Amino acid sequence: MNAPVATDTGMFPASALMEMLWWIHQRAKNKSVYNQTWPLKADRPLDFDALRVAWQAVVDRYEAMRASLHHRDGAIMVSIVDHVEVEPQRIEIEDPGSVPVEPLLRSIAGEIQERPLALDVAPAARLVAVTVGDQYELLVTVHHALVDGWGMQLLMDDFAKAYAAAVAGEEPEFGGEPQVSFREHILASNAARTDGRWDASLKYWREKLDGAVTTTLVADRHTYTGTGNKGGMVRFVFSKEAVDGIGTLAKRYFTTPFSVLFAALQTVLARGGAGPEVCTGLVSANRMTPQDQALVGYLANVLVTRTVVEDGDSFGTVVERVRDGMWDSLAHQTVPFSLVYGALTESAQARLRDAIPILVTWYGSIGVGLRLGDVELTLQRAPNRAARTDLGFGVFDFDGEYIVESEYNVGRFDHSTARRLFQDIDLVLAEGGLDPELPVGTIEVGSRTAPAYLEHTITTADLDTTEMPESASLDQVRRVWTEVLGTAPTGADEDFFATGGRSLKVVQFASALESESGVTLDITGWLTEPTPRKAAEQLDGGAGVDDGSTLVVLQDGEGPHLHLLPGAGGTVRDYRELVAELPSDWRVTASQERAPLDSIPAMAARFRADLDAEDLRPDLLGGWSMGGQIAFEMAATGHGTPPPVVLLDSTPPVEHDIPRDVRDAVVYEVFSENMAATFGATLDGTPAKTTPGDPELAMRALAARLATASGQPVSVAMLLERWTTFNRHTDAVGSYVSERPLEAPALLVRAELADHQVDQWTGRFSAPPRLIEVEADHYGMLRGPAIAEIARAIVGLRTTTTPSA
Fold this sequence. Notes:
The chain has 805 residues and is α/β, with parallel strands linked by helices. It is built from 26 helices and 26 strands.
């Protein structure tokens, strides 16, 4: 896509709140952790042209939507541009086939949520219109460092006005007072850091948090707990009994429903073993004035709450204590938590930690009653895949129905552990509502809790390094290996496939390893030797992964030498079943790209050079798909008598005249079929149509579809890598034309080749190739019964021809 056109109006220091989010974003393992995505189901199709006009209007209206964050000499600076051109994206799957629509929509929302937003490029936001069959969703994503939940609601209100105006062909009229300046708010907030305005509040927080210890759940697994780990989602609807309890207690103690809910949380944490003092994080809206409440920007702050809950206290007493404590702390909510934490003593910081393990947000009716013109929008469940902390949750009030959406760190907690917390809260609310005088010590909860600074301590006893050399990278590989395969590797050179691995597990392993380490595994390189040691070498910078040669030995032997060439977007692993069917004394080698090669002649020349460097003269050359073309080119341009050639459903080298848009659509469909075969998934509908010029978006749509169909996660990074290679290889195949006749025997194996393509190949050999037809499609021919038949034909070709000198 074209880069946005913008005019910079100068930089100024970010607010402490924005600064804090910028740093957290940088250290997060998953950069989507602070993306806010609202999946909005539409009750009818949306006008895409009107969406484009309306989206531009809200970006033009709000400074936060035209702001970006930059690191300059240790400081975080804000830039707000006068104007930036924006364009909504779209994903359309006319017919999803047998893939269920609702799970597919959730998977697409997850992929869009997980796509990082660049904080240094305005806008740090995106709009994606999704159509799957007759279902419609709008995915609105804004980075939290620039817009909070309150601001999202304001943005959506004006977006609705702009959309209705665009549909009517009119200019939007937002009405009301002039838009509050985000720039002025930031400058005022920065002034408060130095003019003494926050001194009293800092003193309050130093005293309140002296000796405080945050509380968390006892982990099911001890793993790293920083921001951006893999996250799971729990959606919990409170029971009627709990809702009634909230209403009763809120009226009795003159407080808000949220205070009652929060008191129930504190009670569960205390009763779970961490009490009698519990300490958690409360995310406040931090909007104290009418100007703040009208501002689209990031104002939310984290307040650390500290509550004493004794067994002898009645639940009503806890509600009162929480109510008073919350009102007390809200008077000091404007001081950013990063400044509060920095003002604490070193010992207080060590016990409190800067990442609060349990964070709670009250959303209330945010996201309720949204419309775009006459289109009704319904907020769907959050698509988060990364966890901000151990466990964070928000509470929605949907017309008196209280719903929790919680993200939790799956590296530490099982889904049942996270869900149990809300079941316990529900129990406390129901029992406390019936009898506010009920002593909390009589309430039995299933959650187990502990001081966070102790619970987060990991000792070497927690790590299993059985028969593995000492290495941080090997330890990462071991943990991921164990997670994916269910058993730890017994040594650094254990074969992945010998331990139960398969292609789908490879993708899981690579995706999980990337999440753990931040390094993208070169799957193609690793599969030549799929061991923990080789994966660890890649994590350490690729030492020893690639010696520069494209030559790979698949089977050693003293018999005939078959050399195989790669298919489009394929790897040497594609030939694994073929090698297993060939005689055990055959020598089988293959070529594997180490650097991009853009044409069939270039590939043939490089692969031949590496064979020559080893003084190898294969007795047969062959390949599937593109590999057959490379084999033909190598035989036709090599030295001496050309060896016999094996063509496995390869297209002939003839000129094609296909418009680029048609070509791109066909290639994407073929690639999708290729990946579906790889993952054992069925994609029997129509291919996805996505915004042109954005291959990552196309791969995210495909990843969502594959994941929904196969029931397993799919790495977008892997798909992008394979797509880039496949696309380049397809161009190479389409542009390869050769009229020269080849004086060599040939075997042509047909799966999906047309009659005229067989005739075209026949015209390129001095003697007609031996033709066999297998009962399989283009991708299935390398597996199962078809490959056994192909192996027999290859052996037959060898025995009926004279070996080359």
